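Researcher: Here's a chain I'd like modeled. Treat it as a single chain, no partners, no ligands.
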Amino acid sequence: MKKPVVALVLACLMCGCATSGQGVRLTFLDTDETRNDTMSLLRKAGCKEETTQRLSNIIAHHRSAPMSEELPLFPPKSDGYYHFASVEELIQRLNGKTLGHYGEPQPSLNCFLFSFLALRDVGFSASLIGERFTEKFFVDIQSKTNSHAVTEWEKIGKTEDFRLNGIRAVPYLRLEDLRKNEFRRWGAKGWLNNAFTEDTVNAFYSMRTFRHFPESPTTKQLTAKQLWSWKSELYAKDGLIFPKRLQVALFHYMCGQSTAIDHIVLVVPHNGRFVCVEKTSTYGPYVRIDFNTTKEIGQYIVSGYKEFCIKYKQLGFVTLNEKLLCDFDPTKKSTVPSNRAEARPLGR
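Model: Modeled as a single isolated chain. Structure tokens:
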């Protein structure tokens, strides 16, 4: 009687299907069942009913799922999900791209705006961002492609700035200056006025605004551990509090000697696994991926940024709340999991 069971398990593994507690599954949230289940998890993590209804409507309105011919390397879909034997198989089938490259291009919310709609309900704040502001290394990145930003820095005759590879990092002197410039980039969309509280906006500015690393003449001397330790201290000074039930995975990168985040993923620990919900890009699909470990989350996120890091010769790394998950050093061309990557789900 055991042989049929063994044969079934082997068949599932060969076709890329996941068995209980194993494998990775992915959905583009293109069915009522997958959306409803995902919104239920977000409510259990602290989101309000009206918020999840709004998120569900946004996802349904956007044609989230790529056409089948756009995913020639994906296995057949089952019960609304694509099943992969491992995160390595998922990464291999994506062929070095992020999921944001797939799907019919439609303007929609980017990853930050989508994520912060959920995070506003769970106490995400940075209430101390204005205190001792000039000691927090906020900078305005200016270049030929970003020349619209204007700060009070030049108006009062300051000559200091930081230049590297044609990129100019102008220090912000006051929180008001930061808000003025960053509002030009984000406020025009209306979301800062209409969707979020001041606490949520402060948390957004704390995370999204560039910080200039002051202690090293070259980024080659920096490690992800050094950078994350430094940024963690700055977040703490801002009063940034990461939520515990609805967690935040971030991709950080360097721009000269300045650092910022380029991508955010919502993470819900659930039944011993980690459910990730993300808007893959401004024009890309919404997606949910169920991982087994936080290490897998880091592997998945950093895999889509390897070409970016190599092209600009910049270090990139992934964090989950306070934890460093993995990094990618283009001089080594390899991902390096941190010792803390195997963090257990909260509450276990």
